[in-house]
């Protein structure tokens, strides 16, 4: 139970500097993130700091009163990473939205945690640059949340996940101390890599308040999009293997399974009947023949028709629309548990077969899309809208999927994070000795254990 003195002290310390929410109805809106299957507790207060000093003051008070703290960005986590715990303080960085600096020569920007990913990308675009990480929620997700979960996205096959774009961090520790890690330089081997440790730590080690990020050169010409349809998953898997092994470097390589395509077609009537798999590919290099090479490899693997190829930005966006419809199409069918596993690219077809087998065994509807170029799959488990929590059959099927990913030399999460939903699986992947190291790191950063309890480390 939170001490009533804590809320009073919080309001007294920060009430005139930033927004402090204590109203019950508003507090309830911060219980959950986008993983709605995680119920979340009612926080005692929500703070929306404007400065790093505000964050420091809030954490100093939380430590002195022993109050749990749940850091939150835009709340787009699909693993329950930002779900509140009962009586906690939710610390939302959404008001920290300043781009402190952007240096086109060094291709570096320093941004606060609440800067929306797309806003940073647009600001970089004014200088012919881009912020490469592009999670599906990039129009609403924040850089702080992207860093905290090491978010990925469609472009990671070429540009890597968020960790590859982070040079340094400003982070506030549980006791209120402010620490800076990394540098603005490309090379830096001074001391332990605390920046890399904090990226993907899911708010369990501290609150990220700002990030120094690497910007990439924006492609000179718009990307060319290739869409190929297949009569079997095996043929699509062969096409992925051919593109990865013999094709040009691609910036996007997405796969949709037949169940997903049927759901999209039932909703939007796009003429996808009879297609058991589809690849959506983009190339953003300078060589005009790259897209044609991709299309040729898809035909070699057995594409049912001549692949569609477009260099027109609007038409490319229309071709990409099929991929973007995957999740909303699943939502038309029921409540969704969106999962996230990764395997070596060579094991991708087998992993999809294992997902289908688990779905059939437990009588569960599963729609699967994949960032095929890096072996990252998103099986979406669909169940009744009226269900409370995750039905037993869905949980059993999901557990089979996680086990299959590990058997195929993969991971239980490629980009969503462990959060609440997979905390009990982490030790299965990393082993007992590694878990001991994880807990030792956690204790060094957060000796009282107040930072995002119940997440990542069960």
Automatic annotation (TrEMBL):
Task: Note the PANTHER family from the entry.
Answer: GLYCOLATE OXIDASE SUBUNIT GLCD
Q: What is its EC number?
A: 1.1.3.15
Concerning InterPro entries, the annotation shows: FAD-bd_oxidored_4_C (IPR004113), FAD-bd_PCMH (IPR016166), FAD-bd_PCMH-like_sf (IPR036318), FAD-bd_PCMH_sub2 (IPR016169), FAD-linked_Oxase-like_C (IPR016164), FAD-linked_OxidoTrans_Type4 (IPR051914), Oxid_FAD_bind_N (IPR006094), Vanillyl_alc_oxidase_C-sub2 (IPR016171)
For this chain, the family text in UniProt reads:
Belongs to the FAD-binding oxidoreductase/transferase type 4 family.
**Keyword Protein biosynthesis carried by entry:** no
- Please identify the protein, giving its name as recorded: Glycolate oxidase
Q: Which UniProt keywords apply?
A: FAD, Flavoprotein, Oxidoreductase
